[in-house]
Amino acid sequence: MFEFSYLKANSLSEAAAFVAAHPDAKLLAGGMTLLPTLKQRLAQPSHLVDVGRLPELGGIELKAGRLAIGAATRHHDVATSAVVRNAIPALAYLASHIGDPQVRNCGTLGGSVANNDPAADYPAAVLALDAIIVTTQREIAAADFFQGMFATALEAGEIIVRVLFPVPKRAAYEKFPHPASGYAMAGAFVAEMATGVRVAVTGAGPGVFRWSEAESALAQNLNVAAVDKLTLDATDLNEDFHATREYRANLAKVMTKRALQKMLATK
Amino acid sequence: MTKLELNVNGKLRIGEVEDRTLLADFLRDQLGLTGTHIGCDTSQCGCCTVHLDGRAIKSCTMLAVQASGAKVVTIEGLAKGDTLHPVQQAFSDCHGLQCGFCTPGMIMATAALLKDNPNPSDAEIYRGLEGNLCRCTGYINIVKAVKRAAQTS
Q1: Quick check: ipTM above 0.90?
Q2: CA A24, CA B121: separation in Å to the nearest integer?
Q3: Tens of pLDDT along chain A (267 residues)?
């Protein structure tokens, strides 16, 4: 790691002041992506501003049909929260399948969303559930927030405070984890909302995206067969030595079908 | 340099570290607690697993300064005098190791797993130890040891 100065923020306003004062600072929450990145010397922040234990970024609360989860909430706490399991069991399931137990004890919701790794799990839930990202400056709709590989609508110095998840009628998440890294080679979050069924795919493309053809087909016919007839356009998907883009397109479809099957099995 | 104060294995320890010092390096180099191993240094192998405020974490992927004020338990803190912790005893009894490099991390991860789930199934053991790699055993005796520990804890 290159040298940096560590600043522990004691409040959200202090954290905001730190990042405003140091344009090359980075926020540190769980550190599950940032610290490995620093170890490889892929980034050289002047300061790390630790927001990982800020009480203002904690808390899980169900209010007016929306589940609010603080940005610094650990994956383990989302996975085991009775409130989350009750309101959106698919979200608790998703959180319980990120990384490994040690990673889930450190990694945070806000960190995952802000990083927007194209193979991360949380962005699929955020987009499928049409969640709202509340920051120190504004509220951002999921559709505007994710802007492709590792890119988000966050401005310099803007800090995610919490994410508001509308509670769906039912939902499910399925992924095909890479056997070595555990990251999703393709994952699909399917949610039945008041407005219809939404399908978000992660891992397959340069960033999380909605599969609109599947959503239209499911609006006509809410069953697995409706997706079976479709082919996901592979043109913009990722290709590497693990899988061709056509393979990923098919994998995304299979994950969508599995998630759908799981969702339809719940009442 | 930043001063830090943390409770390690029940003792208050005070140190001064470069901000970029990893918790694993602080434990090993400054406190001499070399039971915490560094295997991969990329948060995959789990050899560096310790408990931070009761939860298993990978100490190679946490800054020492992040742990300031916390309660840390390492493999050296598990046994009570000459009496091994039930998980340590089970790994010994079931020979849940060959070279032993991954063992401190396996034991710390197992102790944390059994705290959450005192009687895990095989599938729950596999998932519970997903963050720990062993290059020797093929895991058979490790899983046996976890089951034995579940019975004796």
Answers
A1: yes
A2: 47
A3: 999 999 999 999 999 999 999 999 999 999 999 999 999 999 999 999 999 999 999 999 999 999 999 999 999 999 999 999 999 999 999 999 999 999 999 999 999 999 999 999 999 999 999 999 999 999 999 999 999 999 999 999 999 999 999 999 999 999 999 988 889 999 999 999 999 999 999 999 999 999 999 999 999 999 999 999 999 999 999 999 999 999 999 999 999 999 999 999 997
Q: Which residues of A touch B43 (CB under 8 A)?
A: 32, 35-36, 102-103
CATH of span B86-152? 1.10.150.120
Domain boundary assignment for chain B: 2-77, 86-152
Q: Distance between CA A253 and CA A187 in Å, rounded?
A: 9
Domain spanning B2-77, CATH architecture: Roll (3.10)
Cβ of residue B34 closer than 8 Å to a chain A Cβ: no
Those residues with Cβ within 8 angstroms of residue A36's Cβ, 6 or more apart along the chain or in another chain:
B42, B43, B61
What is the DSSP pairing of strand A132-135 with strand B2-8? Answer: unpaired
Which of B20, B57, B66 lies at the smallest CB-CB distance from A102?
B57
d(CA A267, CA A180): 35
> In this complex, do B20 and A3 lie within 8 Å of one another by their Cβ atoms?
yes
Question: CATH 3.30.43.10 residue ranges in chain A?
Answer: 5-50
B128 CB within 8 Å of a chain A CB: yes
Q: What's the CATH architecture for A55-166?
A: 2-Layer Sandwich (3.30)
Secondary-structure breakdown of chain A: helix, strand, coil percentages, each rounded to the nearest 5: 35, 25, 40
Residue A33, SS3? coil
Q: Does B61 touch chain A (CB under 8 A)?
A: yes
Task: List chain A residues with CB under 8 Å of B109.
Answer: 101-102
> Which residues in chain B have Cβ-Cβ distances shorter than 8 Å to A38?
20
Residue B112 contacts A where some CB pair is shorter than 8 Å: yes
Work out the minimum CA distance from B13 to partner chain A, whole angstroms: 20
Fold assignment, A5-50: 3.30.43
